[in-house]
Design goal:
By secondary structure, the protein is an alpha+beta fold. Helices cover 26% and strands 40% of the residues. It has a single domain, classed as Electron Transport, Fmn-binding Protein, Chain A (Pnp Oxidase, Chain A). The protein is built from four helices and eight strands, in the order αββββαββααββ. β3 and β4 form a beta hairpin. The radius of gyration is 16 Å and the shape is globular. The mean pLDDT is 93.
């Protein structure tokens, strides 16, 4: 069970950061980590890419992903980050695609130059976290709290 305060901290970190590092599993079994921009709706993360990328092919084969989201910090006692494991699902609902697309344009206006859902091979993934490790050094060196959803 996650407290409201901890849930608020988790969503605040997700809201405040622009990029995450996502790990997917290629055919050879060695995890592949990639830095990507994202948007979110609370704890739900959206990732846009094209269907010919390695991460899209990896997710199509195995939709279990891990990812980290880290706030910028000046000193170690300010470190605050999330390490999460979740399930990535291809978004096929046009309304959900449109909503997430609008969020991408608001957060990253430059996305219009590079990407749109009309792009022939554009894909959008929804990631639902299942487990979250919250790292918060303000509560002590290496302090973590584990949340299972």
């Amino acid at each position: 069970m996650v407290t409201e305060a901890l849930r608020g901290q988790i969503v605040s970190i997700i809201d405040d950061v622009q990029d995450m590092t996502i790990a997917t599993v290629p055919e050879d079994g060695y995890p592949q980590a990639t830095t990507v921009s994202y948007v979110n709706d609370g704890l739900t993360i959206y990732l846009g890419t094209t269907d010919d990328t390695q991460k899209a092919r990896n997710i199509a084969r195995n939709n279990k992903v891990s990812f980290t989201i880290d706030r910028e910090y000046g000193t170690w006692d300010e470190i605050e980050s999330l390490s999460m494991g979740g399930i990535a699902t291809l978004v096929t609902d046009p309304k959900e695609q449109q909503k997430a697309g609008k969020q991408f344009l608001e957060k990253f206006p430059q996305v219009a130059e590079y990407f749109s859902m009309e792009t022939e091979n554009a894909v959008l993934f929804r990631i639902e976290p299942k487990v979250i490790s919250v790292l918060d050094y303000s509560k002590g060196f290496g302090h973590t709290e584990l949340v299972t959803l």
